[in-house]
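#struct-pred
JK: can someone run the complex with heme C? inputs below
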Amino acid sequence: MDQPRNESTSSNPIMRPWVEVACLVVLLGAAACSSGSGPGAGVPDVSPPAAAPEASPSPPGASGSTNRALVPATQADRGRDAFLASCTACHASGEFTASAFRRRWSTRDAADLYRLMSNTMPEDAPSSLAPERYVEIVTYILSMNGFDSSASAGPWDVATLDGISLAPLAGS
Ligand code: HEC
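RT: done, structure tokens with the ligand placed:
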């Protein structure tokens, strides 16, 4: 804003250090006072990005607001690959976000979904995938259904799925 004019035209060698000290003091003062003084101090305030989408950066385990599990992003990505490789001969991924699917599974937990898939799917070759693949497909399905995924979550294994309620599928 009020950028100090370049004083270098005054070629007085004694003035220069004073100018620098004065600037330093001003800078320090501005920094020190920026918390207390009102707006308009000319401090280049870095305002928060206005375009933050609805995905709020709530930390893992943010308690209370929702009981949705935080899905491990890496596993959800792998689950997508596994799904595309082994399941799309018979299924479109949209089946697993459809309201009938969500209603049916909202009274179960993730371990139930895992068991059904690992015991009966692919229909033409049940249990043919490694257990980790089925876990990953479960995380993929949850991430498609509005469970937040995060690079910091997980990793999940079969035992983890026991505690994951699918109740959020009933809403929103
Ligand atoms: C050869 C065909 C075929 C393949 C491949 C296949 N499925 Fe299925 N799947 C079916 C059939 C048939 C059903 C039972 C009818 C239905 O719900 O569509 C079914 C049902 C399901 C259900 C229950 C759906 C619900 O609405 O409750 C899930 C979950 C599922 N499959 C997951 C998978 C996954 C994950 C894979 C890949 C690892 C897979 N399926 C591969 C044929 C297949």
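RT: quick notes.
Residues 34 and 46 are 12 Å apart (CA to CA).
Residues 86-87, 89-91, 101, 104, 116-117, 121-124, 129, 137 surround heme C (CB under 6 Å).
JK: thanks, will look after standup
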